[in-house]
Amino acid sequence: MENKSTLTEAAYRHIFEGIVTGKYRVGQTLSIDKLSATLNMSKTPIREALVELEGEGLVYRRSRYYNVMYLSKEDVIDLYETRIILEAEAARLSSLRATDQQIEDMRSTLKVINDLTNQENPDPLLLTEMNGKFHWLIASSCGNKTIAKYCTDIRLRLKAVRTSLFTSMDRREDEIREHEHIFKAIEKRDADEAVKRMLQHERNVMKFVDRVVLPELF
After folding, report:
1. Which of 181, 161, 168, 192 is nearest to 95 (CA)?
2. What percentage of the chain reaches a pLDDT higher than 90?
3. What range defines the domain where residue 35 resides?
4. Report for 68-77, 156-165, 195-204: range of highest mean pLDDT
5. How many domains is the chain built from?
6. How far apart are the C-alpha atoms of 181 and 175, rounded to whole Å?
7. Domain end position, chosen among 25, 45, 68
């Protein structure tokens, strides 16, 4: 018998992948009873998964029901334009303020990402989480709690879009190379280079999203 955390993770993954692939459309009501029957599990892990997804801004609650959060094409573009500014400043400040341990944590996270990417069939959701961790490490080491909070909030709201990035082999390889450039600039304490590399990275992501991801989602 699987424990509750394993069941909750299975429910989370099912619903999340349904949102990413379009199986569950924006605004659609998610029935706990139907999900329970589909996944052959009790309602408790379903509710726990939905609460987690609500915290990430992917669903919202209306009375006793949950609905898939509506995020328009314009919303996605607005969020990415804001993200570019915040992530660049986070990288600049991180290069000046990150501790040696925080830099080592970034290095370790990049190694995990590289190892995952080199697998035969890397898990897009796991890659999204680890890439998100790398960006979180930069934001959390910048010494500005407000920037860190907004970077995290935007990253969570874009999670479904960001996961689509890692279904592309070309984009996965670009992510590794661009992240390495960002990390090296922070490690060298080169603020100008850190800003430059982060801006290049985020603009490349936005171009890919606009060219490849958005036409599939909308």
Report:
1. 192
2. 67
3. 4-68
4. 195-204
5. 2
6. 10
7. 68
C-alpha 169/C-alpha 92 separation (Å) is: 29
- N-terminal to C-terminal alpha carbon distance within the chain: 40
- CATH at residue 52: 1.10.10.10
**67-123 pLDDT, tens digit each:** 988 778 899 999 999 999 999 999 999 999 999 999 999 999 999 999 999 998 888
What is the distance between the alpha carbons of residues 65 and 207, in angstroms, rounded to a whole number?
A: 36
* Nearest CA-CA partner of 96 in 202, 181, 192: 192
CA distance 103 to 109: 10
* pLDDT score of 1: 34
Token output for 23:
């199986």
Distance, in Å, from the CA atom of 147 to the CA atom of 110, rounded to the nearest integer, reads: 22
What's the number of CA atoms in the CB half-sphere (13 Å) around residue 49?
A: 26
Nearest-angstrom CA–CA distance, 29 and 13:
17
Closest by Cα among 21, 66, 56 to 154: 56
